[in-house]
Amino acid sequence: MTQEQNQSNKALVQAFWHDLENGHSAEKHLSRNCRFFGPAPIQTAVGAKDFENDYWNPLASAFGQLQRETHIFMGGLSSGAVSGKGDRKAWVGGTGYLHGHFDKDYLSIPASNKPISIRWGEFCCIEEGKIVDIYLLLDFIDLMQQADIHVLPPARGEDGIYPPPAVADGVLFEPQDADLSSYSLEHIRRFIFDGLNSYDQSKLNSMGLADYFHPEIKWYGPGGIGACLSFKEFQDLHQRPWLHAFPDRQVKDLTALIAEGNYSGGPGWAGVLATHKGDYLDVAATGKTIEINGLDFWKRQGEQYIENWVFVDMIHLFDQMGIDLMARAQEQR
Fold first, then answer.
1. CA pair distance 133, 300, nearest whole angstrom
2. How many angstroms separate the CA atoms of 331 and 181, rounded?
3. pTM (two decimals)
4. Structure confidence at residue 333 (pLDDT)
5. Contact 319, 137 (CB under 8 A)
6. How many angstroms separate the CA atoms of 131 and 27, rounded?
7. How far is CA 15 from CA 12, 35, 153, 203, 259, in A?
8. Which runs of consecutive H residues, i.e. helices, occur in 52-139?
9. Coil, strand or helix: which one is 286?
10. How many whole angstroms separate alpha carbon 108 and alpha carbon 144?
11. What is the mean pLDDT of each run of 10 residues along the chain (333 residues)?
12. CA distance linking residue 94 with residue 146, whole number of Å
């Protein structure tokens, strides 16, 4: 893929988002059978009408005129397979906030009648000038917390922290150096498939993450987990409890993995498989096989990651452990 094609793909996604936020149909940007993969309980849709009816229109109706704040915006060719030999498809991804006013109940979440900021992360696959696949997560737990609805125990990390990159360089409207982008993709592949997947189910240092994560890394986790503002906090507040619960977790073939400039990211629907072997956020081990849907964005500084923005579909995760978090939200009306 040329830089010109990547720029054209990014312009397409910008136009798609612009039309949604301004009340226009997004149909012209989507392929006829475009597939949408969203957060539980929305989940999937096929075609532009189902995408708008099942996802966007209810969201826009509940939160007034949504305005998008973009923290990271990037594109590239995917290399998401463990083997490195998967399909090379063009993707554009972004993350940030959707700002609105919580006027009407949304799904099972009671309206707060207050301003709200919804964390979003999205990746669009593009073929022949049309969006063919959309993978999107909204941080529903963080949204609930803003509405004073608490369906999980207090987070170990810090709630409500989801800033843009510290040096405000994450929105990549301009072409990036091709060699730099290529190195970033190779680097993130090593981190995920050679580092994370090397955990020996005993010692955290078996993954060698200290080589990949800066000592002062800012790890912005989802609602329910919270932000960790150093490598030590990441290990103590997230990684140890997570691996206690899911010690055999493995990153499988991701839906996509792209890099541009010093940024990388991608979605993984069932991208991580694990067995629920230990308690997690007050839920006792079930012994069930768990599929984890998530999105990540990373900022590389030299040979280490200095920032990481993380989405986990917590509603879907807890559903598999037999806990209905949306029902818990309804109970707090």
1. 27
2. 47
3. 0.97
4. 75
5. no
6. 10
7. 5, 18, 40, 47, 21
8. 57-62
9. coil
10. 10
11. 96 97 94 97 93 95 94 97 87 98 95 97 98 98 97 96 97 97 97 92 90 98 98 97 97 97 98 98 98 98 98 98 96 83
12. 22
Please spell the DSSP secondary structure of 31-58, one letter per residue: EEEEEEE-STTT-EEESHHHHIIIIIHH
- Residue count of the chain, please give it: 333
- Name the nearest CA neighbour of 108 among 172, 151, 168, 51: 151
Q: Sheet holding 130-138: strands in order across? A: 44-46, 30-37, 130-138, 115-127, 90-101, 67-77
In the block, tokens 């090379």 appear at 88
Burial class (CB in 10 A: 0-12, 13-18, 19+), 82: middle
Q: Output 320-324 pairs: Cβ under 8 A, ≥24 positions apart.
A: 320/276, 320/288, 320/290, 320/291, 321/276, 321/280, 321/283, 321/286, 321/288, 321/290, 322/283, 322/286, 323/283
pLDDT in tens, 266-284: 999 999 999 999 999 999 9
Beta bridge partners of 91: 76, 125
pLDDT value at residue 87: 78
Say how far apart CA 176 and CA 307 lie, in whole Å: 19
Which helix (H) or strand (E) segment is 14 a member of? helix 3-21
Amino acid at 101: H
